[in-house]
Amino acid sequence: MRRFVIRSLESAVRRGDASASSCRRFSSDSAPERKVAILGAAGGIGQPLALLMKLNPLVSSLTLYDIAGTPGVAADVSHINTRAEVAGYAGDEQLGKALEGSDVVIIPAGVPRKPGMTRDDLFNINAGIVKSLCTAISKYCPNAVVNMISNPVNSTVPIASEVFKKAGTYNERRLFGVTTLDVVRAKTFYAGKAKVPVAGVNVPVVGGHAGITILPLFSQATPASNDLSDEDIKALTKRTQDGGTEVVEAKAGKGSATLSMAYAGAIFADACLKGLNGVPDVVECSFVQSSITELPFFASKVRLGKNGVEEVLGLGPLSDFEKEGLEKLKPELKASIEKGIKFAQEN
Ligand SMILES: NC(=O)c1ccc[n+]([C@@H]2O[C@H](COP(=O)([O-])OP(=O)(O)OC[C@H]3O[C@@H](n4cnc5c(N)ncnc54)[C@H](O)[C@@H]3O)[C@@H](O)[C@H]2O)c1
Ligand SMILES: O=C(O)C[C@H](O)C(=O)O
After folding, report:
1. At what angle do helices 259-276 and 46-54 cross, to 10 degrees?
2. What is d(CA 327, CA 212) in angstroms, rounded to the nearest whole number?
3. Closest ligand 2 atom, CA of 209?
4. What residue ranges line ligand 1, CB within 6 angstroms?
5. What is the pLDDT of residues 16-65, one digit of tens each?
6. Which of 35, 83, 187, 209 is catalytic?
C-alpha cells in the first residue's frame, strides 16, 4: 500500500524549510519534539483521537496507522494549522515506519462490543491484534510509552507485558492500560448527582476496566458531598461500572464509546507527554503493573514522569462499601490477567 505523508504547508513556511529533518532541527516551538503514534487510527476512536492529538501542542509528529483508511484520515487532520506534522500509514509493511522514533504509542485497534457482549467476548480477536502490534513496538520503538485502549484491557495489558518480556524490552514503567474513561464517567455522574460544577470534580477509579472490576472511590470524591445517601453511592457506582454497556446499548449494534473514549485517551496521552517532558505532579488513574494489592496489575492513581510511571499510589482510605467491592473484584480481575498471560505465553 501507498505511503502517504502530508506536512502542513503553514508549518513548513513558518519554519522556512520544507525538508522534514530541517523542520525538526529548526522547530521554533518551545516544547520538546514528541512523536505520537495511533494504531487503529481509522476507527471509531482512532479518528477523533487523531483530531485531539493534532490539537495538542506537545505533539510535534503524529503518525496514524491502521490496516486501511489512514491516508484519508491523515490528509484530513493534516490541514489543521497546529504544530504536529501528520503522516498516515496503512498495512503491515508500513507499521515499522509508523512506529519508529515514537515517544508514545496509543492503541485503540481491535473490535468493539455489540449489545449482549462482555469485553471478554472480544478477547479471541483482539488478543491476536494486540500481540502483533506489541511485537512491532518491541522492534521499532522499544522505549515508547504504550497506552493500551483495546479491550479487554484487563487482559490486553498483561498480553503486552508478556510480548515485551519475550522480546526483552519490557519496562513496567512504560505500559499503561487506559482507564481514564471510567474516571471521566465517574466525575460526570457524581457532579450530576451531587449538583456540583463538574469542572472541579475529582474521583479516583481503581481496579480494572470491566464491570465490577471498575471500582470508583466516591468516598474520596472532591468536592465532598454530604447530600449523597448510601443508595446514591451504590447507584453511582453501578452506573460507572455499566457506563460502557449504557453506550453499547444506546448505539444498538453500531459499536461502543468512541467520542468520550477519544477525549479520555487524549487526556491520558497528554498526561504521559507532560510526564515525559518533566512537568511535576502529573497524576492519573491507570491499569499498570502494581504491588498495591496481591494482583500483578491493578488500576490506581499513578504519578507520571520522565520514565513513565514514577510512582504507583496507594488506594487511600476506603469505605466499607468500597472495601467489599475491592474484595469482590479480585477473582474476576485475577482470571482476566491470567488469561492474557497464558495467551501470550502459548502463542
Ligand atoms: N479502554 C477503554 O476505556 C475503551 C473505551 C472504548 C472502546 N475501547 C476498545 O477500543 C477498541 C476500538 O474501538 P473502536 O470503537 O475504535 O472500534 P472500531 O472498529 O471503530 O475501530 C478499530 C480500528 O482498529 C483497526 N484495526 C484492526 N486490526 C488492526 C491491526 N492489526 N492494526 C491496526 N489497526 C487495526 C480497524 O481497522 C479499525 O479501524 C475496542 O476493542 C473497544 O472495545 C476501549
Ligand atoms: O464498553 C465497552 O465495550 C467499551 C469501553 O470499554 C467502555 O468502557 O466504553
Report:
1. 40
2. 10
3. 6
4. 39-40, 42-46, 66-67, 108-113, 122, 126, 129, 132-133, 149-151, 153, 178, 181, 209, 255-258, 261
5. 223 333 333 334 457 999 999 999 999 999 999 999 999 999 999 999 99
6. 209
Q: Which ligand 1 atom sits nearest the alpha carbon of residue 264?
A: 3
Per-chain mean pLDDT for the chain: 92
Q: Is 209 a catalytic residue?
A: yes
Per-residue pLDDT tens over the stretch 315-329:
999 999 999 999 999
Instruction: Give the cell for residue 208.
Output: 480494572
Residue appearing with cell numbers 449482549: 116
Cβ–ligand 2 contact at 244 (below 6 Å) = yes
Amino acid at 56: N
Angle between helices 259-276 and 180-194 (to 10 degrees): 110
ipTM for the predicted complex comes to 0.99
What is the whole-number distance in angstroms between the Cα of residue 49 and the centre of ligand 2?
15
**CB-based contacts of 7, cutoff 8 Å, min separation 6:** 18, 20, 23, 78, 85, 86
The per-residue pLDDT for range 189-233, each reduced to its tens digit, is 999 999 999 999 999 999 999 999 999 999 999 999 988 999 999
- From the alpha carbon of 248, which atom of ligand 2 is closest? 1
Q: Which of 105, 110, 106, 116 is nearest to 130 (CA)?
A: 110
- Which amino acid residue places its CA nearest to atom 9 of ligand 2? 244
Report pTM. 0.93
> What is the distance in angstroms between the CA of the first residue and the CA of the last residue of the chain?
28
Give the number of other CB atoms < 10 A from CB of residue 92: 10
**Which amino acid is residue 183, in one-letter code?**
V
Residue that the C-alpha cell 492513581 belongs to: 301
252-310 confidence digits (pLDDT tens)? 999 999 999 999 999 999 999 999 999 999 999 999 999 999 999 999 999 999 999 99
